[in-house]
Give the backbone structure.
Amino acid sequence: MRVLLAGASGAIGLPLTRRLREAGHDVTAIHRSAAGREKLLAAGAAPVHVDVLDRPGLLQALDGHRFDAVISQLTALKKPPMMHRDMAATNRLRIEGTQNLLAAAARTGAERFVNQSMVFGYGYGDFGGRVLTEADRFGPPGRGRFEHAVAAMRSSERQIFDADHVSGISLRYGLFYGPGPAGDAVVDGLRRRRLPVVRNGGVLPWVYVDDAADATLAALERGAPDTAYNVADDEPVSFSDLATAIAAAVGAPKPPAVPTWLLTSAPYAKAMMTGGVRMSSAKAHEELGWRPQRPTYREGVAELAEHYSRPAV
């Protein structure tokens, strides 16, 4: 297929580009950073430097192109979000960026649209041990300012399902970890002892970035139209346990543990660290033929540590 990938310099952009190219797809990759261009070229993509929030500029940059599918991996997260305001740019990308990419799909003839969503679209908080499936309500009204983030995920998913000119597929990922943007800030924060954890945090679903890329390729090729899939590994784990395991694996100091009340001024970080969310990926296993190559965080952390032990190039 001829694929337009937006958010190509984000958390899973490069692994996904490589997977798409290995599978024989042609990739045109939208990126914002100048540094991303050379990496995307090396991965076999045709880079396009444009802001997806600039609809006229986006359509002009893609003038004359024809695509079979669009994949949106739009975020604006350079480090783990701590405050509600840290999600503002990503929320806008999920709403306006999706609108503009759907316009680009219509202009370029793309009939398939694979969208990035995530587990917190089911809501923030503790679900009391219940395992969430795609049958659970997605995008319920959020509590307070959490509504902004939930509404953005609700909007992006509804847009692709309601569009007449594309078959929409939404991937509700667990939280990303692994090399690249998903791991650089975490590893740096742990090495500098600037990333605290909470005691007795609740579990969350996670997915290694390369496994997320594999699931995205499977959804592109085999996903059912107007369908959502949960994408996470087989063992949810608390942020505290994951961060502590990463620190030990990369030779960083053990992260300091703080009481939960100290995170009151950082509500987004508190919601992530306290957790209490479990999610089933059985539907993706059955319909997409996808299973994570790193079934638990233990395999993923070992691979991540190997990456960060290599000399910088």
Summary: The CA atoms of residues 73 and 213 lie 10 Å apart. DSSP finds eleven helices and 15 strands in the chain. The longest strand covers residues 112-118. Residues 88-108 form the longest helix (21 residues).
